[in-house]
Specification:
mainly beta; 4-stranded antiparallel sheet; 4 helices; 19 strands; 8% helix; disordered N terminus
Amino acid sequence: MSFVALFNHQVNLVGYRYSNMSYGKMFLFLPLLSAAYNLNITNYHSWKSGTGPKKPNFFCQDICFTREEHDRCCSCEGKPIWELNPNISYLPVYVEYINTFGRSKILGNDSTASFHWLRHENGRMNRLPDNLCEYNDTLVTLSLKGNKIQSIEGINCMRLSDYLDLSDTSILSVSNETFSGMPNLRVLTMMNTNIRRLELNTFMATEGTDIFVTDLSKNDFLSFDISNVFFKRRAYCDIALVSCNITFTGTNDIDLSLDNSYGGGELVCADSNINTHPIQMIFGKTM
């Protein structure tokens, strides 16, 4: 049996469009199993991945049990508990600037709140707030888009963060340590930044992250390791790479033996210029 015949029952490529090295939507589906148990939220159950870190505040729709790709269904259709239970307090905190150069701190820690959210957008913040880590037990939603932030070193102290938007900032780089230790991070948006390289396994589940929705659109990647869209034993909802220039690199860390499974989810590369098709890189001339 050929190499492709061994794997084409696992990988489906749908909606592919080729034109001058530009690609439309690509769907990479690989079935995985997850352990789930029912709680008292109508039509939802607490979700637990069989391969990634736990997300105790994340709930999956019961209808996903009827889907063949139920892990991916959960990653797309699930919601955090503060959106489902009106009795759970979810309150804002605010930013105060310490100096005129963009240094800041967070204010407003209501002790009655179960969870907090912070949206400080299009400001002059040039670094993460000084006391950000003091809110790592309650701050779950953080949007700092449109600020002048260049570095997010130390953000992985935010172990309960569910939603993170760092779009339209001046961030220069991320590494495979940047989001390590953020097991609850579900949505990550970093559109239009100064990031030029994504190294091996930047979003790897085994390093304590399991991000379901990632938007890296409007970036120019001189080097984008293929491991960041082709995950071992992990389902995700989608990764958006819309209107990007991308040079995909690296396949050495991907073991395509029959003992392993990869993916899957939706990879959206509409209106992007790409050096080569990701699936072609992985499977090579056997396609």
